[in-house]
Amino acid sequence: MTSRDAPKKARIAKYIDESLKQVFSELEADTMPDQITDLLSVLRAQDDALKGKK
């Protein structure tokens, strides 16, 4: 690797970083489907019931 390659690699790394941040921020803003949240509620209730029996 030559010293001329370093700035190019830095730009590539910055581009990848920014792209990943954008993708994950978009995912974070998405809401879960109602079916998933309903399932999680049922599973939590079952878990609480099992913990109460012990």
UniProtKB/TrEMBL annotation:
<feature type="domain" description="Anti-sigma factor NepR">
    <location>
        <begin position="14"/>
        <end position="47"/>
    </location>
</feature>
<dbReference type="InterPro" id="IPR041649">
    <property type="entry name" value="NepR"/>
</dbReference>
<protein>
    <recommendedName>
        <fullName>Anti-sigma factor NepR domain-containing protein</fullName>
    </recommendedName>
</protein>
<dbReference type="Pfam" id="PF18557">
    <property type="entry name" value="NepR"/>
</dbReference>
